[in-house]
């Protein structure tokens, strides 16, 4: 292939460059069942890229990925990118109807799916309009036949497609309070922009670092943490396919000795609770950093997805002597654009702008907000998504020329630190993942006993927001503990588990505007 000067391919910069620069024998990926050197990772990517080509996939085609955090995730993701196709990693915790939407909306021609998730698509097989092939992956044995055969036969050599910095590279889906999830399209250069400015610029990531992420690779947060930060500096990453649980995280700390850990507030809370329980059982009176064996290899922790309460930061720091850097990111901006710094931490604040990311807070009059005045956070940077796939109105509302409207309310204090002041819409972040109150309400209303429902965020004992439902029952129905439990069960069965209301309060009526819109802010104030 003869490339022009504008050639740029993300897989070339992140993977092939490491081999060219002599890191071929260095471990790139640690995982439960196997470790991969950079050379082995490159080979896996090349073979997968060649397999895709054999299947008729080429430049600008979409490849959907319903894949757990296993090494082959990287094979498919970068294999697709290398041939100019666009991988679309999808949340593995959703329901069949969600997958039907993603597959038909994106018009992906092929789906790679972890074997454990296959039952999720059985029921929708007949409704898929564009999907041609399904490739099933087992973490240990590899691809199902006949693809395993094709993979084994595939060449270990693969040239990059002639792509450029601005070419479509990958998509991620993001959900809003109303309307269907939006396909967020990122360009080839976006991962490098994030890696250079945030991973190197803020975290000081270097070749000796080993990353571990509680957030899965299909989130923009997890994709950076475990899918490309380490590769951007010739470091190593740890992949684990089990759901992130406190016990499992400590086991991974011990086994793989990460240097940078990326968590979410809920998990930091749960990990501390477990540690405090263990301290108690061991009869430790004043446990502190001196017996911090559990986190001995870490130099830094990161939190994102939702605000990290100062109290959690303080408890973690007191127990382990390690800082947690809270930072805010989004799928649209790809990663963290405001962050605390290792030498400059304000517990309870998001911090200051990532280098080369410009911030502007706009008040209700459309003017730049004063110190301490809340407004909408706008960001100008080079890693912003180009558009939402075939959603023009939403694209226009969010991608406003050079500035991107984050939808977050923020204010800046006199010292220049940025503080999160909630959302402009009613969206909730639960364990770092979006929950739309409208979706939970719609699910509750389907229950035969429910007339109306409203869902708002309520802080639990750790000061982390979880969904609470306010329910108006149909005539003849009586509020009871048992009915509340039944409604929770109903939600658990019909939606991804993290969305169910943790509290149910029965009320006579819901506060509404004259036009009949639920006033969730009035319920929040109750
Ligand atoms: C909220 C936060 C307060 C905020 C993400 C790191 O979460 C990520 O992306 P999403 O698209 O959600 C974005 C929204 O989540 N949020 C995220 N982090 C914080 N609010 N403090 C925080 N530290 O409403 C934001 O608009 O799912 C996080 C890196 C990449 C990401 N995509």
Please describe what this structure looks like.
Helix 1 crosses helix 2, helix 9 crosses helix 10 and helix 10 packs across helix 11. Helices cover 30% and strands 25% of the residues. It contains 15 helices and 27 strands. The strands form 6 sheets. It has a 9-stranded mixed sheet with strand order 2-1-11-10-12-13-14-15-16, sandwiched between helices. Strand 23 and strand 24 form a beta hairpin. It is an alpha/beta fold and 526 residues long. The protein has 3 domains: 177 residues, 3-Layer(aba) Sandwich (Rossmann fold); 214 residues, Rossmann fold, CATH 3.40.50; 97 residues, ANL, C-terminal domain (GMP Synthetase, Chain A, domain 3), CATH 3.30.300. The longest helix has 17 residues. Bound molecules: 5'-O-[(S)-[(2-aminobenzoyl)oxy](hydroxy)phosphoryl]adenosine. The site of 5'-O-[(S)-[(2-aminobenzoyl)oxy](hydroxy)phosphoryl]adenosine (3UK) has 24 residues, from helix 8, strand 14, strand 21 and strand 22.
